[in-house]
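User: Here's a chain of 132 residues. Predict its fold as tokens.
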Amino acid sequence: MLKATDLTALMETYDADFARLKELGKAAIDHAAVIAGLRQNLSYLPDDLNDLNANYKTLVKDIQTVYGGLNSYQKKLLSANETKRLDAVAKIDADSLTALAVVKLAMGANNDNNFPIIRITHRVRRSSALRP
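Assistant: Prediction complete.
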């Protein structure tokens, strides 16, 4: 901190200090916005985490990254239920989420009555990415 010897020096010191304060203000964390974004992302997950599949991979990783980066103050803004759910999401191996198989339907009239016949050639598998 500099000592000003006249009004011009005082104003220059004030301007420099005020500019620095504005820079620091821009870098401030909006805790409420961080938590709101995390809550919104949580709302996109299915109620039963066993229903997660590879379509949720990026979302799960994003939630894990944000949750892992929360400071103690931000964690206090979460409810007990949110913390419990986030802890469960944190244990998921997002890279192991099962990709849903493509289900192919073939329709045709291959019988004597000309009734439509539908053949399913692939089935959907359940995810096994949740760790015990």
